[in-house]
Amino acid sequence: MLKSLRIFKALSDETRLKILSELTDGEKCVCEIVPKTGRTQSTVSIQLNKLEDMGILSSRREGKSIYYRISDDRVRKLISEEYSKWMILDREDIEWYPEIDMQRCNGCGLCVLGCDRRVFDYTDGMPAVKHPINCRVGCKACEVYCLQNAISFPDDEYVKKIIRENNLFEWSKKQLERYRGD
Ligand code: SF4
Ligand code: SF4
User: What is the pLDDT of residue 51?
Assistant: First the structure.
């Protein structure tokens, strides 16, 4: 019980969640984590220390750099499974994610920092779609704020077709009836 409370506390803060999401695919140094969170180095350091105190991260020093990794397997599993489903469907089966036209992109990074789902990576001054299944199905936020019109998504009809073919409206009605206790 105490362990579960500790985990919920760790995941209840947006900066901590961003840090943990960054670390699901392995150990990283502070210098790699900070730019991905959109927070200052001191804010990230405070949260890294808290996560270490909670027993969720462990660290090691190499020269001037400190490397962090997730030491609690339950947390790693929770974070990596978070986006594996959309409603009742396997997210892997849905081809909804941004595509970047690199001829138009100027590397401003707005898409990287504006996405709260760690979809993009940013290396050598340019974005890349690194975790496509993290993209929220139906969301086009990064397309809207890309001033270069470099980001595109499938047509809206693509999602509507999936909803129709899988009777998701029936499923959602039943879910809501259960919440209301009908
Ligand atoms: S917001 Fe658009 S122009 Fe800026 S990095 Fe992303 S894709 Fe490139
Ligand atoms: S559409 Fe939304 S969730 Fe998907 S990559 Fe863009 S900002 Fe992130």
Answer: 93
Class of domain 85-180: alpha beta
Nearest CA to ligand 2 atom 7: 115
Q: Which CATH architecture has domain 2-78?
A: Orthogonal Bundle (1.10)
Q: Is the C-beta atom of 113 inside 6 A of ligand 1?
A: no
| CA–CA distance, 33 with 121 (Å, rounded to integer) | 11
Q: pLDDT tens across 117-131, in order? A: 889 989 899 999 988
Model confidence pLDDT, tens digit, residues 24-60: 878 999 998 998 788 899 999 999 999 999 889 999 9
pLDDT band at 169 (very low <50, low <70, confident <90, very high): very high
Q: Which listed ligand is nearest to 98 at the C-alpha?
A: 2
Tell me the CB-side half-sphere exposure of residue 148, using CA atoms within 13 A. 14
CA distance 142 to 138: 12
Residues in contact with ligand 2 by the CB-under-6-Å rule are: 98, 114-115, 117, 119, 135-136, 139-142
CB of 119 within 6 A of ligand 1: the answer is: no
From atom 8 of ligand 1, which residue's Cα is the shortest distance away? 105
Going from N- to C-terminal start, the domains of the chain cover 2-78, 85-180
Would you give the DSSP letter of residue 70?
E
